[in-house]
């Protein structure tokens, strides 16, 4: 698909990321989906799975470089990666502090301006 849009979607293991990847494939796009572990992830027809932990600078750099090496460009980036955990801080007191920071980093970090040089 050399003339189709190249789409990168983070967090395609499940949920919104997975559905978004499937929709872009149906539109004829060349889709790369990031997952934390390619060995644990379920394949998605038409999606190239790329191992990437968006909380890890080196992992992001390696993953984006691998995508660009294969596709030569990125036209669309959808940040759908997140880490979920059940409950709230009252019911699950261990859900405070470090766990909340990890959740925030996962949801917000990839879209920061300083990550742009990798793309």
Automatic annotation (TrEMBL):
Gene3D superfamilies: NAD(P)-binding Rossmann-like Domain. One of its GO terms (molecular function) is serine 3-dehydrogenase activity. Keywords: Oxidoreductase. Its EC number is 1.1.1.276. InterPro entries: NAD(P)-bd_dom_sf, SDR_fam, SDR_oxidoreductase. The keyword Oxidoreductase applies. The keyword Zinc does not apply. Pfam families: adh_short. It comes from the Bacteria. SUPFAM superfamilies: NAD(P)-binding Rossmann-fold domains. Belongs to the short-chain dehydrogenases/reductases (SDR) family. This is Putative short-chain alcohol dehydrogenase. It comes from Collimonas fungivorans (strain Ter331).
